[in-house]
Structure formats: C-alpha cells, structure tokens
Amino acid sequence: xxxxxxxxxxxxxxxxxxxxxxxxxxxxxxxxxxxxxxxxxxxxxxxxxxxxxxxxxxxxxxxxxxxxxxxxxxxxxxxxxxxxxxxxxxxxxxxxxxxxxxxxxxxxxxxxxxxxxxxxxxxxxxxxxxxxxxxxxxxxxxxxxxxxxxxxxxxxxxxxxxxxxxxxxxxxxxxxxxxxxxxxxxxxxxxxxxxxxxxxxxxxxxxxxxxxxxxxxxxxxxxxxxxxxxxxxxxxxxxxxxxxxxxxxxxxxxxxxxxxxx
Length: 262
Description:
Distance between the termini: 145 Å
Number of helices: 6
Number of domains: 2
Largest sheet: 9 strands, antiparallel
Shape: elongated
Transmembrane segments: 31-49
Order of helices and strands: HHEEEEEHEEEEEHEHH
Keywords: Membrane, Transmembrane, Transmembrane helix
C-alpha cells in the first residue's frame, strides 16, 4: 500500500518480517493436530475396550446352560382299576370303578352305581392313606360332590349310625346336577390304618333311612388284592356285622322303598 507523504513509514513497512507470525500459526496448528489425534486415540481405546467387554459377556452367557422349565408332575395319576380292590354286595346296578394314586403313595378307588337322577344311585370313594389334611364333614362331601359335577343345595345336621366299621358320620343332603336328588351322605375314617371312605346314596322315589344306609355300608367288601393291613381291618369289621344286614336284608336295604303313607 502506498502512503504518500510518509517516506519513513514506507521504509519501515518494506523491512517488516512476517516469519514469527507464520511460526506462531504453525505451532497453533500443531497443537490442534495433537489434541485431535489424542482424542481419536482415546475414543479408539474406549471402543476396543467396550468391544472386548461385550465379547467376554457373550462368552459367559454361552457358557451357562439355559434353564429348562419343567411342569411339576400331577399329584394324582390314574391307575388300573382291575382287578377291583373293593366291591359292594348287592349293588343296585353295575359298578363303574376308577382308581388313582397320589405321589405320597395314597390310593383312591371310586365306585359309582347308576347315574345321578336314577331311582337308585350311589357313589363311594375309598381312600387308603391320607394325602390331605382333614376337613369338616360338609366341606369333604361338598368337595367330593364337585368332583362328580354336583353341588350341595341343602344339608341337615350330621349324626352317627352304627355299621360294621363302627360309627359312621351321616347327614341328609340335597344334591344338585341336571336335577335335584335327596341323598344320604356319609363318611368314615380310621387314623390307625389310614383307611376311610365317603360318599352318598340317593333315591328319587324312596326315603333312605339309617337301616338302609347302614346295610349299604356293611356291603362294602375287600378284594383279594388288598394289603395285609386292609385285610385285617375288614376281617375285624366282618365280625362286627349285625344280623340285620344279612344277604336278604342287604338286598332289601338298597331297593327302593315307597315312602310311608300319611
């Protein structure tokens, strides 16, 4: 730039040295490059470290076997009901027998005579070994009725009736399914042997009294496949059977008897 009238200024400007400025600029650019390279190196180290950590976690997961969810075995499993472990003398019809075994070793045999609503209908469940805690009479019968697809509509106070097994708890009940039926429910249990039974006996055209129910229960017999403890129990029971429930009485007890005239 020409500055007229100032020769001294022009002379000083002609000899101005720009090299220190260039060196300062170069030093600033060098620092920027170093900072940039350092940042890239740190970022690269962090990336590789993270990648190694992820690979290690994958190896650990692959080394641990995956858990397999297995459903627990059912508490009850069906077993062969033939040869029959129990029978009922003078049953009002063919017996339909089902059996199942609990994981604890307990066994249940369910004997059904007729169908609900028939003039003669009965259901009997015999248990050897008790896998469940004791319940009240009503709760026990209601649970058994639910298993048979029935419900308890009404029930009376329980009472004791004499049988060859000893006193048996019984009560009048109205069971409901596709219809209603008046029944006599019953339950027996012996703690020493772990044996017991419960069920009901129903009729549509007759009033079932205690004598009929007692003779029906006295008709329960044990088959040859019974255990020694059950054979001893039934042997004692047979010696306690009354004459009122002989062969003829048992047949009459389970037959339909018309209600008394008013």
